[in-house]
Amino acid sequence: MKKKNMQSIINDYGYRFRDIEEVKKNLASRPNPDEALMAILIQDKNPGKKGYQLTEAFFLWFEANFGSEYLIQGPKGAGKDVMLNKVLKAWDARTPADIFISHQDKTPLVIGFARYDSDRGGAQEDDRTGGNRDKITDILKYADTHKLPLKIFFLNDGPGLTLGSMWNDYAALEDYGKGKVMVCTLKMLDERFTRDWLES
Fold first, then answer.
1. Are residues 23 and 115 in the same domain?
2. Shared domain check, 66 and 38
3. Which of 24, 77, 96, 111 could disulfide-link 81, Cβ–Cβ 3.0 to 4.6 Å?
4. Range of the domain at 127
5. Which of these, 59, 62, 53, 61, lies nearest to 198 by C-alpha position?
């Protein structure tokens, strides 16, 4: 909230505000330190940087586990996305991706998209997962046409995933991809992002 808008916000929504004494009482009843409240406040400290940290963490993990076996492209943190029309023959659309993994002979293997979900929901949630489904459709159609072993990887993290409906929507993407799509958090990488999946 911008300070200059404070009065108009009070005028428009003030009738919905809780009494300050009730707020103080509720805060006093919470644990100290309040880890849940700290997590909510810290996520807005540096907006935009969480996504960069997510991709950087993935690239470091991937290079430590598979660096000598596969080639990986994409922005490590902040940087330019991989444009699929630059790395896939006959891919016409200017589609940005965060992760592009290929064999040493440059055969495309995985196209990845990384997103940090803070606390989105509702229409934003529907747009995100609906757009992901469209990407899956287009990439798998391309892979089938060009006889490529392409898979799609969605690296997602953040407290937004605790929304049950959002997690269910992401899980449905895996079902839709029939084994060629994986949705994963950083903590799941060791267990799920395996050589068997890469080569399947």
1. no
2. no
3. 96
4. 49-199
5. 62
Query: Is residue 135 domain-shared with residue 168, that is, in the same domain?
Result: yes
Q: Are residues 88 and 178 in the same domain?
A: yes
Helix (H, G, I), strand (E, B) or coil at 57: helix
Beta strands per DSSP E along the chain: 70-73, 82-83, 96-97, 99-103, 108-116, 151-157, 181-184
pLDDT tens digits along 42-93? 655 655 556 668 899 999 999 999 988 999 999 887 778 999 999 999 998 9
Q: What is the distance between the alpha carbons of residues 114 and 74, in angstroms, rounded to a whole number?
A: 11
pLDDT in tens, 22-41: 989 988 999 888 887 777 67
Whether cis (ω within 30° of 0) applies to the bond prior to 33 is: yes
Tell me: do 94 and 189 sit in the same domain.
yes
Residue 126 has pLDDT above 60, yes or no: no
- Does 79 share its domain with 176? yes
